[in-house]
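INFO worker-7 received task bundle
INFO bundle size: 2
INFO processing item 0
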Amino acid sequence: VSTKLTADAVVKDLVRCGYLKAADLADRFAGVNIDPAQDTDIVGPTGIFSQTEFDGDREFRKTASVMKMVIDGYAGAGTIAMGGYDYHTGDRSTGEIRDLRAGRCMGACLEYAARRGVPLMMYVFSDGSLASNGTIDNSTDGRGKGVWTGDNSSTAASFFLVYSPNGRTPAIRQQIGWFRGDGSVETASSPAANNVNLLVETVILNYMALNGDIANFASLFNGLGNPPSAALIDSLKAFDTIA
């Protein structure tokens, strides 16, 4: 069969590859239950979420779906996007409640990884930060903290968490970069402090370090230098290889 296209061989190769990938997916997932609602480690009396919590909060359902796919080995990585966190609402309680929900979702991922005996790395980030005018929210959920009143482009703190079923992962350092005395990020403290692309590369570098692949970093990424210096690489490493 001729496709009548100039890149006939390429098109045929892509069609064959597409078929093989589709067939492989059908073979791997046939008869596999990937529904988190049916997993008693996730939902139920002994699950991470009660049935009421799972039914009543879509963020919990979203988290459960993604963490099951990743931790059970059906996806290499997953993203859980949570909306509504631009909460400069003139109080503190709104943000505290939403932060608690996000924290419970992170904790659910770590707990499920522990139950499955699987290592896990989570990267948590936001597209911005907030500022307070110092007014205190003394409501129960406000907890006596300053109210959020507006956006703030000078403060942020992305972070990643690592779980290993073999025990605590040795940390080389707890923090990369630092804040100035006025509370703003010191943008010269590390390449990741003022460049989102280099922030991503820093996270990838640490993922590769955990897997013992850091020697390959320079051949795959060049944002930190071509090649990056050994001193720079060492300054951006938070963890050694997981045992």
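INFO item 0 finished
INFO processing item 1
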Amino acid sequence: IRILSRSSMFMGLEDLGLRSQELTLFNSFLTRPHGIILVTGPTGSGKTTTLYASLAKLNKLDRKIITIEDPIEYQLKGITQMQVLPQIGFYFARGLRSILRHDPDIMMVGEIRDYETAEMAIRSSLTGHLVFSTLHTNDAAGSVTRLIDMGVEPFLIASTMIASVAQRLVRRVCPACAEEYEPSPELLREFGVSSDTARGGHFKKGGGCERCRNTGYRGRVAIYEILPFTNSVKDLTVQRAASTAIKGVACSEGMKTLRRAGWERIIDGTTTFEEIMRVTADIDVGDAIQAAVPETSEHTPAEVEAPPPRPVDATVSL
């Protein structure tokens, strides 16, 4: 059973936990007229909330937005929402075909689970639609190999993808009982950082109180790994490069890994080492903090080139 908070319905992109440069980059993706934006992560990582916030940002009177979901988690005013109904054979792929007949500007597919759904999402983006969806992958680069494993041709992925965004939800340190402390060398070593890297950080942990029910945490915030499909990432995609190679190039171009994004939340006292290690336990420890590119070298929207427009017949075979 999933208990959903109605407060999540009204969250804007600026409320999700995106840093200022990340928010600027993400907003630049939303200006694209067509293409695919994927949000990846395990169940319960906040993917749907991010998608809803994106749709809310784009929701204007002159835009037709249609979603196909399983299930519909929140009602979105001004947006047409459809629900998967397996008992009558109404799955994501069939729903997408139905949506295309209504000629929407923007589409959201709850999840890409198979080749047929991936094929329809790509076909939709090639014919001038902006498509949002989710995948279950550990990191942003894993979305490429996941789509290829489904049978999608790499050149189609490179032609249609705008960005892949991996995310996790971490608990916030309770502000009522937060205490500053100095992490031990052993803890820093386990996390993959040196004492020099940790110098100047404001490390906090909750002592436990009535407000947080003695857990030391209150509330949650998202951490993000944003992979724009730059020309170099597209080239690696066409070459069927491993996700580790794609991640390496993306980091050299300024991408922050989930572990790096988590580290920034640790040193500003938002969350703890234990929380970041818990939510990134499925990620290669090779995401060393010291190897991360400084925040000043992140992508700016101007550095992320849009996929070139190309006329494609709606019946293209994938």
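INFO item 1 finished
INFO post-check item 1: The first strand starts at residue 35 and ends at 40.
INFO post-check item 1: Residues 41 and 138 are 6 Å apart (CA to CA).
INFO worker-7 idle
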